[in-house]
Amino acid sequence: MRSEAHIQQWLGAKMIYQLKTPLMVGASLVRGHLYIFTILLFVAFSAKASELLSLADAIERAQQEDPWLTANQFTERAMRAKSIASGSQADPKLALGYANLPLDSWHVNQQDMTQVKLSVSQQFARGDSLAIKQAQLKTAAKQYQLLREDRIAELKKALTLLWLDAYLSRQSIYLIEQDRTLFEQLAEVASASYSHALGQTQQQDVIHAQLEILQLEDRLLTHKQNLNEGISALHQWLDVSSESINDTKVSGQQYELNLAQLPEISLTSAGISKQAVSAQQIMPMLLKHPAVMAIDIHYQTRRQGIKLARQSYKPQWGVSASYGYRADRPEGGRRSDLFSVAVTFDLPLFTEHKQDQQVIAAVAEAEVVKSQKLLTLKQMFSQLKVELSRLAQLTARRFLYSEQLLPQTKQQVEASLASYTHDDGDFSQVVKARISLLDARISALKINVEKLKTITRINYLSTQASAKAEREWSQARRLNHAK
User: Fold this and answer.
1) pLDDT one-digit tens code per residue, 257-280
2) Is 130:88 a contact under the CB 8 Å cutoff?
3) Of the four, 67, 99, 359, 442, which is 20 to 30 A from 468 by CA?
4) What DSSP string runs through 388-400?
5) Enclosing domain of residue 296
6) 3-state secondary structure of 429
C-alpha cells in the first residue's frame, strides 16, 4: 500500500540523513526478507503435506460425518418398525393342564370332574386403538426427515460462523504483524534520534513507541488465542467420524483449513430483502422451515394421542374356549369330555378418575406442542427481523468505512508523517495516526465478517423444507385426519 511504502521510504531517508547508519536499515530489511522467506517455505511445505480445505468442503465433510444424522436415520427406522408391529392384535394364549385332581390319590380317573384341560384365549384391542396407534407412530416417523434437514442447515450455519471467526482472527493477526514491523522501525528511529539529540524527538516519544509495540503484542497474542480456539472448534466437527473412532485415527492431520480468503456468502432466499418486512411476508416462509414443520408433525402425533385416549371409554373384548378330556371310570364306565366357550369384556363405568383424566392429559400435551410451535415461530420471526435490520446497518457502515473513514485515516497518516519528516510535527501524532489506521482496518474487517455472519444466520432462518420432506409432512396431516 502507498502509506506503508511511504513510511518505508521515509524511515530509510530519516536514518541516512540523521544518523548516517545505513547498516541498521539493511539489517532490518534482511531480517524481514528472511522472515518472509521462512513463512513462504513453511506454507509451501504444508500445502504439499496436507489437503487445503475450503469452507464448502468443510461443511460437506461435517454433514457426511455427523453422528447425529446417522442416529436420526436409525431412530426413524425403529419408529417405522414399531408402527408396523403396533397394528397387530395381541397373540392368543394357550393353556394345557390338569383340573380338579383329587389330593388323596392323584388319579385322573377317580373323580368325575378331573380332566386334562386345553384352553385358548384371545384379547382384542379397544375400539380402533390399534389403527390409531399405528397411524400415530407412522406420523411420528415422518418428522425425522425434517429434523435431518434442520440439522444439516444448523451444521452449515455453525461451521460458517466458526470459520468466519477464525478468518477474522487470522486476518487481524496479519494486519497487526504488518504494522508491528513498522512500529519497531519507528521505535528504532525515535530511539536513535533521541540518543543523538536530532529533531524534536523526546524521551516520552521513545517510551510511547515502545508501549505501543507492547500493546500490539498483547493484541496479537489475544487474536492468536482466538484463532487456536476457533480452529479447535472447527476440528470438533471435522475430525470425528465412525471410521476415525473405530480405527483410533485423527483425521485432522490430513488437511489444512484455507482461511486465507474471505468466503463468498449471499442471501439464498428470493423472498428476503435487506429492508424490513412484515409478518405477512415472513410467516408463510417460516411455516415451511424444517424445524417448524417437524414441530407441526409432533403436534399431529399428539392429536392422535387424544383419539387414542378416547378409545379407553370403549370396552375391551375377549374370547376363550377350552376342551376338557376326562378318563373312563375305574369300573369301566365312560365319561363324556367337556367343552367351554366364553366372551369377556370390561365395563368402563368409573371413568372420572381414569379415562377422563387420560383424555385431559392428552389434550394438555397437544396444547403444549401447539404453544411450542407458536413460540418457535415468534422467536424465529423476531430473530429474522433483528438480523435484517443488522444487515442494513452493516451495509451502511461498510460503505462509510470504504468510502470515507479508511481513505481519510490514510490521509491523516500521510499528513502526520510528512509533518514529522520536516520537523514540523509531533512524533506521538505519527504513532497515534498509525494506530488509528490499524484500528480502522480491523474495524472494517470485523464489519465485513459480521455482515457475512448475519447473512449466514438469515439463510438458516429462511431455510425451506425439501419436496420430499413436504410430502412427508402432507402425509402426516392426512393420517391425522383419517378415521
Assistant:
1) 888 888 999 988 776 765 556 777
2) yes
3) 67
4) HHHHHHHHHHHHH
5) 50-481
6) helix
